[in-house]
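Page 42, continued from yesterday. The earlier attempt failed because a stray header line got pasted into the input along with the sequence. Redoing it now with the clean sequence only.
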Amino acid sequence: MEKFDVIIIGGGPAGLVASKILVAFGKKTAIVERAKLGGDCTHSGCVPSKTLLKSAKAYYDAKNINKYGLSSNDISIDTSNVLSHVRSVVDEIYSHETPEIFEEAGVNIIQGNATFINSNEIVVDGKIYSADKFIIATGATAAIPNIEGLKEIDYLTNENIFLQESIPKSLIVIGTGAIGVEMATAFNRLGSEVTILSRSEGILKENDEELSNILLEQLQKEGIDFINNVEFLKVNQKNNLKSISIKQNGEEKIISSSEILIATGRAPNVDLDLSNANVEHDKKGVKVNEYLQTSNENIYAIGDVSTKYKFTHIAEQEAIVAASNIGLPINKKMSYENIGWCVYSDPELAQIGLRPKEAEEKYKDDVKTYRFEYKNSDRGYTDVDKVGLIKVSVLSSGKIVGASILGTRAGELIHQLQLAKTFNITFDKLSKMVYLYPTYADIIKQPSKQFYINKLLNNKFLKLLKKIKSIVTGS
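This time it went through. Structure tokens are written below.
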């Protein structure tokens, strides 16, 4: 039996980051991975999806080249190599994450499925390994809804959609979260006839409702069919054609397509015999405290298997916290107060902190939400990208408690507000910086300037001076 200081179960972003830190701390560390290092992010998530979205945007811009004052004959674009291009980018990134590279860095790679025997031992393909500490970083898989007939057909998830050989002629997307919206955006632009089906109203429930609705309108303008308040009845497949029976407002109808994509959320991978190690878990994942320890203090859990924030950047931050708590004589807490996320549709939709409604409910009259539209930014005009809106919720003290951005480069722009929120830089101070012109950062400059003006107008000392001046001058 081989013994380690720390065994990490799962070689996705969380596990890889944690392993590097632990080796740097001098810990004998192993990663157990049942598939490929890199996890969903590299092979079926962030990397392939953003590559596909970039190809789709290039296609869309070429087809709409006239909006830039250019003209051409009919443009014919071959999409047959798009998905192979996506896979080539995945392969290129994976080349930096291979077992050989991590072995050279001092991390032991164990291939196979791990299950706990007890609190200090696991078994992988019949071989037993022990460790003083464990980190569970097994991630999550696509959650499959209970729809009659679904198990009998060939459906797509994020785990196999990038393995297709060609762009489907038509695509039904079940789910309105980030995966569903991003894939609907990309495949629609690449020529698929896309229909999004939703059990409820709207899309992207974790984001600001107003901005989500604006984005939905844009998707519909581009040709995506959105059907809400749907009850799923049955799925069928005949040859290569899939069909789904739905009920909407009491009326039944059948919708058919080449492919059906299931994008209804993520289910944590907890098939590790966790009870043998006294690790509490439920359908939402492994339960952890603020130090990322499970109910067994020598076993930590990080990433999608334990957090509701299923993003690579959150997984990596949790990896830093957990590895530090194992390798250093400290107790570092994991904070989610200043985190953010972005949906990489077009336009992008980014969020940090509280949404405006949440901010108003929590802070009442002490909070105000400042708005500014992309169409009022000169850069929006020069780039012909005028659809977008920023909303920043600010306390009277100037503290930023939340921000939402819909628009071009929203995922990049929101970092300036995240920086201010994280390090307690008041909103008015952002107006005092000299911004380059013309840039999209104007959408942050203008509302921060408005806050600064309001702050001056409400300054009690300035109000007193103004009153004294009026008395002295008689005006």
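Notes: DSSP finds 13 helices and 23 strands in the chain.
Reminder to self: strip header lines before submitting.
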